[in-house]
Prior knowledge:
This protein has 256 residues and is of the alpha/beta class.
Amino acid sequence: MLRDKVAIVTGAGPGLGRTLARLMAEQGAKVAVAARTASALEVIAAESGALAVPTDVTDAGQVQHLAETVHATFGRIDVLVNAAFPGTHRKNVLDMDPAYLARWREVVDIATYGTLLACRYVAPYMVARGSGSIVNLTSMSSRVGYAGRSDYAAGKAGVHLLSHCLADELGPHGVRVNCVAPGWIASDVLTDWMRTRAADEGVTFEDIHSRDTEAMALRRIATEEDVARAVIFLASDLAQATTGATLDVNGGQQFT
Length: 256
């Protein structure tokens, strides 16, 4: 689906970013991965043959260097996937101290401003070719608010509407901009959270897992591969007439 295309994945640390790089390479893409932690990029580069470019997505100079490096190396950029995960610390607004307020702003900067910067410096190469696909990872939290997650929700909601704006701006130049919005993703982190909730409630892990999955239409939690395949579809030529769209990958969790 991505044979001979050149793709950049930002936020390519352990987890989804790593899975994205691997599956995109398996689909024939030449992949460049970017994240702040160089050691994590080296692991990804070793297993998927990706070009590793350490980058802080909130630093305009570093993001510009990323775009220039990838274009100089491969001669083109066809796909940009913005997957930087800003994290969240689950704190109520009434409990936010000055240190946390600074962290709140950092989360929004990574999610929204980081996505904007990547688009700003990669899109011109796509416009020059008259084609390209940008896929931004948002979240179910970008449209459904949860207590204690205002930092993450605000950052991802910003990406959601930013994508609509950029789809309108770049569409006349042949560049598509779409979103993939995961819900929960099966991982050790999610499992640990479920175990913590089970201990707090005095029930078993299986009780919590069953309760959560029964609330989803598909009765299962999406995997990293599920999310990555949705990204690959939107990045590919199979989605040539799709822009400004959001593909939900949450097993039906959002509407149930």
